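Q: What does the assembly look like in three dimensions?
Context provided by user:
Components: two
Sequences:
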Amino acid sequence: MKTLRFVPVALVGLIVVALVWRLANPPDTDVQSAMVGKPVPAFATPAALPGKVSLSSADLADGRPKLVNFFASWCVPCVGEAPVLTMLKQQGVHIVGMAVRDRPEDLRQFLSDNGDPFDRIGSDPESRVQLAFGSAGVPETFIVDGRGIIVRQHIGPIVADDVPALVRAVKEAQ
Amino acid sequence: MKALLIILALMMASPALADSNLPPAYWANRQLPDPRQEEQAKALMEEIRCLVCQGESIADSDADLAGDMRDMVRRRIAAGEKPPAIRSWLIQRYGAWITFMPPSEPATWPLWLAPLALLLGGALVARARLKTRKRK
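A: Here is the predicted structure of the complete assembly.
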């Protein structure tokens, strides 16, 4: 019976240890899409800008693997990501964009400031396509293979160090 | 003087540009005309986790994306879709994490059993204590 006395103290100690551990190892707040491995959800969006080509799910199953980049002119990390997307395009990667909650005038300015590596740009003013992909923010990028299957999700901005792995992954997604 | 400087500095600071310039989606902050449908939508929105402010439900969150999710929920309910169908559509995309009502599956059994176990443990401790008190 006497040994049982220490049980509450031990429990409190355990809770303190758990709390300290959690403080030292903050949880990963990235939201992984459960759509990886599945076909892209059906969608059709108008072109985000006059003169750009629109984007629909059928365009993602045209035999060529692609990056589908969810971005926005109001998204600060997207500015940093833009030159890296241009690098990817120069290495032969097809990139299509989905402008999330964006206005044409802002988007036009963004593209003229930061370059336009996109073959197509769809407009997603109510985040519906983003939600259908299981994406939780901008920027986020999905690799879609030639048959229109989502094979990989990249959360957050693509940085220069990610380029070789992404180029390889796109080649493998044939 | 110092306070004045701080106020001036605050007035000059521009807010971080991390939100869309588009106004909220139509049904983000508008109730459905049919009160029964609005009630269904409200109940569902209160149990769906916001993807941005992850401790809040989409009913409570001010994030743009939460507004878009409320818009989606109300639109679908107005179109006659049932809340369980919308919930499972979201779970298909984000996993069971998206709902604050975790489904009962082996991984969540400890969660449901923990209150019972704690109550039982407490009852045992209380019984032992009361027994020793009586003996005195």
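Follow-up: Chain B is about 55% helix and 0% strand.
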